[in-house]
Amino acid sequence: MVSQNLSQMKYLKYFGITLLVILIDQIVKLAVDANMAMGTAGQIKLLGDWFKLHYTTNPGMAFGMELGSEYGKLILTTFRLVAMIGIGYYLYYLIKKKVHPGYITCIAMILGGAIGNLVDSVFYGVLLDNAPFDASTPWFHGQVVDMFYIDIWEGFIPDWVPLWGGSYTALWPIFNVADASIFMGVVFILLFQKKFFAENLKHEEEDEIQRQFIEEK
């Protein structure tokens, strides 16, 4: 009974991190929508001109990119939903295999951030009425709410620059809690990958030795 409770606790611990990221992300987004005007008019300076709260929405993928199709947003949201199921199962698998806690935490953060933005895409078209005017349905066409703005540079990008050329934009994209959680999860994996995966290999070698010992007996 004790071992079973401990096993359940380890799943609750890491999926709890995912849930915490989702809750914080959604609370911040809904607070911004309820209390701030969109764009420059509602902008709040936190650290001078460098770091601001700036309410905007993102209709597509990262950095505002979109799929050029009538059903592009629906395809993107559906893909995100399938991806979340896959990442959720992967997190369960990592916990079960007892891999490095730091790596599991990073995956939990990535999952939480991804689900946080997925909630916007699925529900905000109805809940916040922010679906594009030409959307076939507000469901699955919600726009992601962004608010954190690190103002490094703003200006006109030359036409020859791929993707963003010919537009007035900011050097640093406006992001949200979910984006930050995904970003930090990926960065930590890159920074500590040797530590994370070296220990994983050690566990695999120990499991292999145990299997060989059992077979010999």
Layout of helices and strands:
Blueprint: H1 2-35, E1 44-47, E2 51-58, H2 72-97, H3 101-127, E3 144-150, E4 154-156, E5 168-170, H4 177-191, H5 193-216
Antiparallel strand pairs: 1-2, 2-3, 4-5
Active site: 146, 179
EC number: 3.4.23.36
Transmembrane segments: 12-32, 74-95, 102-127, 170-192
Protein architecture, described:
- By secondary structure, the chain is mostly helical.
- It has one domain.
- The protein is 58% helix and 12% strand.
- The protein has five helices and five strands, in the order αββααβββαα.
- Strand 1 and strand 2 form a beta hairpin.
- Helix 1 (2-35) crosses helix 3.
- The chain is globular.
- InterPro entries: Peptidase_A8.
Total individual domains: 1
Q: SSE string, helix = H, strand = E? A: HEEHHEEEHH
| Strand line-up in the sheet with most strands | 1-2-3
The fraction of residues in strands falls at 5-15%
Computed Rg: 21 Å
Helix content: 55-70%
Please mark out the parts with pLDDT under 50 across 5 or more consecutive residues, or reply none.
none
The overall pLDDT, averaged over residues, is 85
Biggest beta sheet summary: 3 strands, antiparallel
Discrete helix count: 5
Measure the end-to-end span: 29 Å
Query: Which structural class matches the secondary elements?
Result: mainly alpha
Would you report the number of β strands? 5
Overall outline: globular
Protein name: Lipoprotein signal peptidase
Membrane topology: Multi-pass membrane protein
Transmembrane segments: 12-32, 74-95, 102-127, 170-192
Pathway: Protein modification; lipoprotein biosynthesis (signal peptide cleavage)
